[in-house]
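Hey, resending since the last one bounced:
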Amino acid sequence: MDTHFSIQWHLTDACDQRCAHCYIFSKLNPAPIRTMSWEEIQMTLRKCIDMCAALKRAPYFHITGGDPILHPHFWRLLECLKEMDIHFSVMGNPFHLDDDVCRRLRELGCDRYQLSIDGLEQTHDRIRKPGSFATTLEKIACIRQAGIKSVVMTTVSALNMHELSGIIDTVVAHHAHVFAFARYCPTGSHEHTHISPQDYRDLLDACWGKFEQYRDTGTLFNLKDHLWTLYLHEKGLFQIPDGLDADTIYDGCNCGISHLTILPDGDVHACRRMESRVGNVFTCDLAEVFTGDAMAPYRQYDKFEKCARCQLLRFCRGCPAVASGYTGSHFSADPQCWKTVA
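The structure tokens again:
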């Protein structure tokens, strides 16, 4: 069991961008911009700490939005986390970062700051906004100089997959500490974003070559997508250990295991990347939510249509959120999984 519990905390929907793949501003989500009040932030923090104590886990917060720096009480929250010695990272935009801001983030205990690069300059700026690409690269150095780990994340679809090798080159050249990518979860039509299973395996193969090329550069390549487990198993680089309990989940998606997402209106989701509301932090006991009936569907591994018949069930399971985006059910087969199972 993980000793930490990961909480992705969206303080506000306010943002400088309107990214093409954003869940907040998707066509299926016309809701107005939401922001937590200071009183709601205090309540949420207290309930998260109480839940982690009940679960005997240490809380780890991923503070995000929107852009969390735009929240009027952003710094006040970080001061509370610093006083309580609670570790956290920030996932935001590059536009409000400068040397002083990054230095202050570090002084308050920020471990990592995650930025996004979703293509080379023309593609990235089309997905996000003009000037975003150059600003993001500039701020990687700003984050590093403050002593914070700079993390670059890419959302991959058929629209930008051909640029992923170039993105890796760029990230390494700018000395990011960590690079990872995850697949786009459709919020509507996926006709132009779908990657075939074989094309996705070929993409992983090309990326693995890049990761080997840049092994000693100082950039860590986080194999975030759980289909990497399948890829490495096929290459003989991941072996299922002997003597493991046949009914225990050892790796793969943390949904239902050690993760929750909290939105600015207090709604709690098993995973932000799919429709998975399980309660509301303002009205529920979080420990009861996490251990209760609402979370049960996200632990019913025997119902996974394809994964339940796979020897890698306890270690992979692909991405249930991507499956949900394509089919409406997180139990469906991962649409990019190339493995044939009986």
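The chain is about 30% helix and 15% strand.

Sorry for the duplicate.
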